[in-house]
Amino acid sequence: MKITPATRNTMSNMISNVRLNSNVNSLHSVKEVGMIDTSNNAMSSDASVLAKEYFYDKLSKKEKEPNKNAFSKEEKQNKKSLFTVSEKDRETLDFLNSMFIKFNSSMDNIKKIDIARGQNNFYKIKNVINENSRFLASIGIMTDKLSHFYVNEEVFVREIMTYPQKLNNLLEPQTGVIRKICDSFGNMLLQNN
Fold it and tell me: Residue 166, CB half-sphere, CA atoms under 13 Å: how many?
């Protein structure tokens, strides 16, 4: 069986043949449609009334049940108390903050040097940061629009306490994320600040 593609001409011919050959006579078995009487809520049906009742019953049950995802203030405070900052965590945070201060001031200087010399060292560093941004964000280390680092200490402590291997991924001397970022700076990282 061969199927020919439908063209505009073919479709027009088919439609005109239907119009020419069709003769519609009035039907006696179907009554004529008249105006709807709205005086006694003829518009509503039993199905819509049942649907409304079901909806409002379900809504009232939902209000009575406590929300399983919502925590009370006491539960939130108890959850926070599980992740208190220890002395070792404070040392790690201080180390990271001091390193990020150096990173931030170095980034500012590199931007100025790149503009003066017509180089793109800033974008090379930014690419390394972007490659690791998902991991950094997962442990509370973010960058702003100026590519300055900052640490959300609450998220950082919670993630390090929950997943200790993330700290190793961050600070590993050979392959850690901080090492990759330091290597991307090359010899442009400020030493004193």
Answer: 19
For 14, phi then psi, to 5°, come to -65, -40
User: pTM of the full predicted structure?
Assistant: 0.53
Q: Where are the alpha helices (DSSP H) in the chain?
A: 8-21, 46-64, 73-81, 87-117, 121-131, 133-138, 153-162, 165-171, 177-185
**Distance from C-alpha of 98 to C-alpha of 115, rounded to nearest angstrom:** 26
As a whole-number percent, the residues of the chain with pLDDT over 90 amount to 17
Judged on CB neighbours under 10 Å (0-12, 13-18, 19+), 141 is: buried
Domain boundaries, the chain: 86-185
Average pLDDT over residues 120-129: 90
DSSP 68: S
